[in-house]
Every structure is written in structure tokens, then in C-alpha cells.
Amino acid sequence: MPSIHVSDIESFTRAHPDTQFVDVLLPDLLSTPRGKRLKIDALPAVYAGAFRLPGSIFAMDALGNTIEATGLGFDDGDADRSCIPVHDSLVCAPWMDEGVAQIQVSMADHDGKPFFGDPRHVLAQVVNRFTEIGLRPVIALEVEFYVVDPRRTRQGGIRPAAAPGKPARRTGKQINSMARIEEMSAILAEISRTCEIQNVPATSMLAESGPGQYEVNLRHVADPCLACDHVIRLKRIVRGVFLKHGLHATFMPKPYADEPGSGTHIHVSLLKDDGRNQFASDSLEPNESLRHAIGGLATSMAESMLVFAPTANSYRRFRPECYVPMSPTWGLNNRGVALRIPADTPDNRRVEHRVAGADVNPYLLAALVLAGVHKGITQKIEPCDPVTGNPYSRDCVEAAALPTNWYESALLFERSAFAAEYLGADFQELYATTRRAELQAFDNQVTPLEYDWYLTAG
Fold first, then answer.
1. What is the set of domains in the chain, with CATH numbers?
2. What pTM was computed for the model?
3. Which of 19, 28, 189, 407 is the most buried if burial means most Cβ atoms within 10 Å?
């Protein structure tokens, strides 16, 4: 586990003398922040490793229930483990008026080594494999979300939020609408300022296609763990700032049946020891390394779907011609494929992975995407031919359709030698156990729609 210099506390408290509390955050398997709020004078103990949380945090479903089959609940005595501060994660949380700071931690096991169930450690292990071959991954993430009215409809549904001071609710699809940016301008500006305060490198914001849907793009970072830390902070900022203004931001992948879903896209390139991009080429056509990376990503995509789409709602995104990939396709400057080579300068050549939903755990997304890249490069896997035109044509989808239901994805992940090799067999079992338990609990529910359709049938 990395050591943290205590001077961080001294410099922070000098700069922010009015801080009264610190939220200590540990993202779980679904990247939901768990933790505690402490008085600021407890911070030295946190840096000394005296702060503890139960390992069962990594055995929870979406509702916060501990999945006992993981062995991290009663079988483990719901035992606490030390949590160590993540470097440079002590920041202000200015949307809260109580003088609150926050710090992120990662979990150590009883022997002081990284806890196997913490996704941040899982990603770090994958990144280490690139060091062994003289390469350094660079990643950038894009996250989409919807803004919704905090009040449910009479039927229990949701609806787009009206902009502050505006009675009308937006409907219809308006991709890149500057009017929709202007409507939320003050809130989006506050999000941008807060990102600067928390050192989250947000480069741009745009109105996505759905009503009340937005996207935030983050700058590329040559430290994948840090890039994912930024996503954890960004999501908390977005939720917190919108809530401050009486609105809800949701990263639910498919909040509306008839509107576009929200995804998380990840851009990947590799730096050589001399700092040059391993994927750089003078043409848009991929060079050998990028071609092999695409091959590895494509061949490992199906068995990684349980991470890319971890919940029941995740799979509602996968519909034809909705800019959500249905098969492990790749192409040049084509937003419909799973693996896109964006049009950019030769030095910025990269691959964009477009499969995951907004609910994905960023550490696990990065871990499996980088694992696919590593596998492809080290095993020199050649991809299929690139797609031109419509990637949702029957030939493209039927050739190698991705699993677009929870059951099939869980089965492929559980049996995956690729996941076991790169994530670790213990983590593979832990993650699959929590996802399958949630799947079964979800399927045990009887919904009002079933009464509407089937109560008088037969």
C-alpha cells in the first residue's frame, strides 16, 4: 500500500481553515461511494491507517445488502480492514455549506497488502503488466447522465427536470443543443468550477441527445487509477451540485424506455519509454500495435460484458441504431462501432471503447479494457475487418453478437479464463457472486406491468 505524507494535512488545513468535516469515501463494486463523515481533527488518524471499514462493502448489491455467499459477511465476522488515503484526494466539497472536505481511501487486508476485492487494486495490477513490457497506458473517460425532476409521476415514473426558473420541460432529441446548455448554464458552470477545485480535468460539456441528458469529457491522464478517481469525484460533484439546486442527476443507463441511454466511453493509448505514442501513425489506418490492441479488445468483449453492463437496467441500452454497440465491431471515425478510431492527429491516435453504461465501475472498466489491449498486443491478435457504413446491419450483428442479457453475461464472465487471469480468480468469483445474487433478487419481483399484461391472460 502506498504511503501518504502527513504534510498533506497541514497544507490543506492552512489553505482551508473553515473546514469542519471530512467525508471519507470508498467506492464499492458498483462505484457507489461508501464511508463515514468525520470531524476534521480525525484526519491524522485516517492518514495513519487507523480508519477502518468492513470488507463487506465489496460484497453489496445495488441496495446495499450484503451478499452472504461472498463469505465477507457473517462468515468473516463482518470484519473491519484498514483504509489508506488515495494520494492527492483530499479536496473541498464546496456544494455543501457545512465546511466539508472529502478524501478517498483504498482498502488493505489484515496483512497490510491490498485487499483483493477493491477494484482500484484490481486496476493497478493490470497496469503493472504494461510496465513489464515497457509501455504506459493513457486513458480518458466520457460520462453521460440525465437530469430529472426529483418528484416521481403518479405512476412512479420519472420526467425531465425543468430548468431553474423555467416552467417548461424539455422533450425530444436535440444533440449538441446550445440552447440546452444555456438553460442549465449556471449549474454547469458551478460543476466546472467545482471540478477545478477538486482537480478533476473536465475539458468540455455538451447536451446529449435525450431530454435533460448531458455529457462531461475528462482530459487524458497517464495514470489509469487517477483517471478513474476523477470519475468518482465527477459523479459526486454532478449529483451534489444538481441536488443543491433541487434537481436530480442520474447515471442510470436507460432511465427512459424511448430515449437514448447513458454510457461511459474510454479512450486508450500507450506511451513508450521515450514518451511517444505507441499507436501513432501517419494515416487513420491503425498500425500493428493498435491493430493487435483492437483484436484483443474484440475477442475479450463478450466475456467482459458483466462489468460493462452490471445491472438489470444496463441491458436496456442495447438496441439497434442507438449508438450502443451490439457486436464487437471496429471502424475508422464511426460512432456506431464498439471500438472506434477517432479522426485526430497522428500523435493522438487511440481507440475509443464505446460499450459500457454510465453505471459501470470505472476501475473495472479500465481494468478489462486495458487487459484486452495487453492480451492483444502480447499475443498479436489480429482483428476482423473494419466496419464501414451502418454497424447495425444484420451481417455485422449476427456475425458476433454481444450478450445483451444479464444471464448470459454472468455465465460468460464466471467461465472466463481471461477475467480470472487479469482480474484474479478470487475477484472474479466475488464480482460474479454479487451480480448473480442481485440478478436473482431482481427477477423475483412481480411488477405492475405483469399484472397489466398477464392477470387475466390464459
1. 7-115 (3.10.20.70), 126-448 (3.30.590.10)
2. 0.95
3. 28
